[in-house]
Design a protein that fits this description.
This protein has about 475 residues and is of the alpha+beta class. About 55% of the residues lie in helices and about 10% in strands. Keywords: ATP-binding, Cell membrane, Kinase, Membrane, Nucleotide-binding, Phosphoprotein, Transferase, Transmembrane, Transmembrane helix.
């Protein structure tokens, strides 16, 4: 599978389609037109009708120009989206200037563009739009046309009320902007982290499928290889007595290589997922799982203390690439942060099976312990070297991915620090209920061994 740049997920998640802005603006144009027409002809209020519709028409012209210039699927950059939202704020301010300024109850619509920006744009763009909205609201509090009213009267709201509306716009812009940005950011980060997890799973499943592909290739290659074997035997039979030493040597070499290929294909065929022994080959004992987990670190010379013991018969499980990836990720972190030694203990009882990974490093920070399992919570400082390039490395996704993959198997993951006064370090415990851990595993004994009953004593003969 090709490498995936996870940083691109964050960029693409923010970019909204132009069609979204155009549709929202058509909705605003419809509402503004209905309000102006209803006030002018329904209520009989003396509005500057022509000027109001000229301001509304500018939004319509912009929408038509965007529709003609760009396709509906076009995604806006942050700057372009901010400029379009700034235009909407200015257009609304111009319409409010003609219809009473902040005395107009529709002045609270200043919050709408800021809210959209908070959910889709970076915080600095939202801050700029919020300042623009508050600045124009301040200007409208001081300078505006009179609020349209019935012909037989005139209404002038006190400045204290207008100040209250300005304060409401200011606080509403700040509160809704921060709140919407926080909620949208958490949702976006969670979606990106889940996407990264799915990429990891797909990569591991791709590797686990290679056995099946190899078995299928063995089946397909079996027929032409058999033909080559028959032709080789015929050539040896016909040319053997009269062949020169060089030709005889080549024929013998060809037969040996064909036999070798048949042996290799036989091994690959035994891994076929449709074969009778496929489930047995996919089953691994708990101690073997622990050894398979620590083998790569031993090859790199890491200091490891490994033990595996328990009460009763040893449990076995089906091979799970996701679980192995998650455990390997946790072990990699333990090795990276350990000062000298890392211990991996596998234990089992009649009810539970668990693996405990312990290091003698600085331990987990309080933030990690409080937010364990959330995406983008990293245990690495920015200047700490990485042990290798993995999916999501350095983004704070490692623990999230490991927890997600492990818990999909029915396990529970617990993080803690060493509680002894004279020791320090981090402890990660992964535990399963035994019946869940052994689910789908094939017994490690061969059922064919007990098919034939033992011979009776009278049938025993001396050798």
């Amino acid at each position: 599978m090709p490498d995936t740049d996870l940083s691109g997920l964050g960029r693409d998640a923010r970019h909204l389609r132009l069609d979204t802005f155009v549709r929202l603006r058509w909705l605003a144009i419809t509402g503004q037109s209905a309000a102006v027409v209803g006030a002018q002809f329904g209520l009989g209020l003396p509005l500057p009708f022509g000027w109001c519709f000229l301001v509304i028409a500018t939004s319509s012209w912009l929408n038509l120009a965007l529709r003609i210039r760009f396709p509906a699927s076009y995604r806006l950059s942050d700057d372009s989206a901010a400029l379009l939202l700034a235009f909407d704020i200015v257009q609304l301010a111009a319409l409010l200037f003609l219809t009473g300024g902040l005395q107009n109850p529709f002045s609270l619509l200043f919050l709408a563009p800021v809210l959209i920006s908070a959910t889709a744009l970076p915080p600095e763009r939202t801050l700029a739009l919020g300042l623009l909205a508050v600045g124009l609201a301040t200007l409208l509090a001081l300078v505006h046309r009179p609020l349209p009213w019935f012909a037989d009267g005139r209404i002038e709201l006190p400045f204290l009320y207008v100040s209250g509306v300005w304060t409401a716009i200011l606080l509403g812009t700040a509160f809704t902007g921060v709140y919407a940005w926080r909620v949208a950011e958490e949702t976006r980060l969670l979606a990106q982290a889940l996407a990264a997890t799915e990429l990891v799973l797909a990569r591991e499943q791709h590797l686990s499928q290679l056995d099946g592909l190899a078995a299928a290739a063995a089946h397909e290659l079996g027929t032409p290889l058999g033909t080559i074997m028959v032709v080789t035997k015929e050539l040896i039979r016909q040319l053997g007595p009269t062949a020169s030493p060089a030709v005889a040597e080549d024929l013998n070499l060809l037969r040996e290589q064909v036999d070798r290929c048949r042996g290799i294909l036989g091994k690959l065929t035994s891994l076929d997922g449709d074969g009778a022994g496929a489930g047995f080959l996919e089953t691994v004992t708990f101690s073997h799982l622990v050894e398979e987990l620590v083998a790569p670190q031993r090859a790199l010379g890491a200091g490891l203390d490994v033990s595996s013991a328990g009460d009763g018969p040893e449990p076995a499980c089906r091979r799970n690439p996701g679980v192995m990836f998650g455990l390997a990720n946790i072990l990699d972190n333990a090795v990276d942060f350990a000062e000298a030694r890392v211990s991996v203990e596998g234990r089992w009882s009649a009810e539970r099976v668990w693996i405990e990974i312990r290091d003698d490093g600085p331990g987990f920070s309080s933030e990690v312990l409080l937010r364990a399992g959330e995406p983008y919570v990293t245990t690495r400082s920015h200047d700490r070297p990485q042990s290798g390039e993995t999916v999501g490395a350095g983004l704070g996704l490692g623990l999230f991915i490991a927890k997600t993959l492990i818990e999909r198997s029915g396990a529970q993951l617990a993080l803690m620090n060493v509680a002894a006064p004279d020791a320090h370090g981090a402890v990660v415990r992964v535990s399963w209920a035994r019946h869940i851990f052994e689910r789908g595993a094939v017994p490690r004994h061969s059922p064919e061994l007990n098919i034939r009953p033992p011979l009776p004593p009278r049938d025993v003969v001396p050798i």
